[in-house]
Amino acid sequence: MVTDEVVLIGTFRLPFENRAKAKAAMVDMVVASRAEADCLEYSYAFDLEDNNLVRVCERWQNHQAFDQHRSSTHLKVWRDNWPALEISDPKLFIYSSKRTAL
Q: Where are the chain's structural domains?
């Protein structure tokens, strides 16, 4: 079975000294996003070599689910927190793919 899927991969910069403060907001974002319908994966990871880099991975069942996520209240709250957390340089890339079960 082949299905459309939306994948977002990328990074953003977060000063290391703000990591602890950002973690609670990041956990809230992950929990709320994973609870959304058709969210297949949602995660953040701190880079092992660059203490100021956060990696982002999202997978959505379809474009409609991704679009609904983009208009969600929790995403707006998360983005509104970026200036206070000094989050910068987002490099986020959205891909459409066909997912095939092996």
A: 2-100
SS3 at position 96: strand
| Amino acid 42: pLDDT | 98
- What DSSP line would sit under 49-60, residue for residue? S-TTEEEEEEEE
The tokens for 1 are 């079975």
How far, in Å, CA of 19 to CA of 24, rounded? 9
Helix (H) or strand (E) holding 20, with range, is helix 19-34
Radius of gyration of the chain measured on its C-alpha atoms: 14
pTM for this entry = 0.89
Residue 2 confidence (pLDDT) above 80: no
What is the rounded distance in angstroms from the CA atom of residue 44 to the CA atom of residue 26? 8
**3-state DSSP assignment of residue 8:** strand
* Run of H or E residues at 69: helix 63-70
Alpha-carbon distance of 13 to 52, in angstroms, equals 5
Query: What is the CATH topology of the domain spanning 2-100?
Result: Alpha-Beta Plaits (3.30.70)
